[in-house]
């Protein structure tokens, strides 16, 4: 579903992502592991078309996400969860995103139910806990019913209940046939959830393996 080929990103002297190639299959949760600064966010931003590669390609369903404009119908992203207007409610944010992408209002209600924000959807986003903001970010990503869910460190800073909830959601999304890609700098955070592992360090591929094979080898 996601194909990354020779993907490279340089910022001046720094090579953030270095000739990366790997694939993410539908119906699976793929863990994207590496220490802080390894190049995970940069890779995910290029997959989502939010950043242009220096070289190489990243495609979703065979198509490149055009730089700058994420087609809501094809791609889900948590990467913009921080960009909330504190005085506006979850409902307002999602309604604006739906309207801007030609999606019907019923999708807003559907995703609010899916992420369990229905009862607080009219409260200003500035009053939300981190966990609620994460849920809102995921609601935004699910709005267009995308075949792919790309989640950048979604467990960061969450309480145990939020962590359990996001893990369950990722399994559910994969069971529905979506390709789920989740980054983390902590193996223990995702090892029980992922089917496949892609490990990077200093922008380079270190391992690309099924979780079953990884467990057997370690
Ligand atoms: P990770 O998500 O794995 O923590 P990043 O993709 O954020 O890693 O960063 C990879 C490398 O690229 C780091 O060395 C980081 O400092 C550098 N980098 C990321 N974004 C930029 C940028 N906009 N300008 C310059 N360097 C950047
Ligand atoms: P534009 O490219 O003109 O800003 P878009 O409709 O592409 O308009 O996106 C509007 C905002 O919503 C952008 O910040 C974009 O990153 C964000 N966005 C788009 N699609 C998603 C998604 N699936 N999940 C989360 N945020 C998204």
UniProtKB/TrEMBL annotation:
Keyword check for Iron-sulfur: no
Which keywords does UniProt give here?
ATP-binding, Nucleotide-binding, Transport
**Which GO molecular function entries does the Swiss-Prot or TrEMBL record give?**
ATP binding; ATP hydrolysis activity
Q: Which residues form the ABC transporter domain?
A: 2-218
Q: Does the keyword Flavoprotein apply?
A: no
**Family the entry assigns:** Belongs to the ABC transporter superfamily.
| Official protein name in the record | ATP-binding cassette domain-containing protein
